[in-house]
Amino acid sequence: MSTFAAQRKDKPAPLRIVTLEPSAWAKGAPKTKVALGLRCLSHRELTTAQGEAWKEARSGGREGEEVTERFNEVLMAWTVAYACTDPNDASKPYFEFAHIEVREKLRPETIRRLWDELEAAQAGSSPLLPPADDDELAELGAMLCGQEPLGNLTPAQALRLRRWARLMLEQLVAAEASG
Predict the structure, then answer these.
(1) 143 part of a folded domain
(2) Which tens digit of pLDDT belongs to each residue from 4-16?
(3) Which of 25, 38, 95, 102 is deepest in the core (most CB within 10 A)?
(4) SS3 sequence, 121-169?
(5) Are 38 and 114 in contact (CB under 8 A)?
(6) Beta strands per DSSP E along the chain
(7) How far is CA 149 from the centre of its chain?
(8) Structural domain of residue 98, as residue ranges?
(9) Which pLDDT value is given to residue 83?
């Protein structure tokens, strides 16, 4: 083999590694915690996920908001399916038949958690999203200390920010505990 991938000696690292408790699984739950790697998706994978989500969302006579809700559920499942990798080698998928196995083996709330983890990891590694400076962090702290800091957001926006805040808090607590 003369491809670049075959010549690489080190394995590509996942963007993020997530540890799932046995309770995160719906079917065939392991007896111990399981580490999953998450990687960024290619444009082709994103396009496929969106196409499959639209097909499924529009099937079954769904209308209006039902279509949107089903689209979001299916898009998350397909995206997570593509993103899950071996925690030691991002080039190896975690699931053999990912688009089927993810929905069978993982609970819906686990798929949502992995989606949030992937979204946060991508935002955290994107060169297009500049990091907050010290003044912006101070402004954020002041806004969060105000009355009903997320009150002007839609429930979906507030939930998203609360999830990101939880991830940030977990990382800060872990760093404080280790240092």
Answers:
(1) no
(2) 445 456 889 999 9
(3) 38
(4) HHHHHCCCCCCCCHHHHHHHHHHHHCCCCCCCCCHHHHHHHHHHHHHHH
(5) yes
(6) 16-20, 34-38, 84-86, 89-93
(7) 25
(8) 8-129
(9) 96
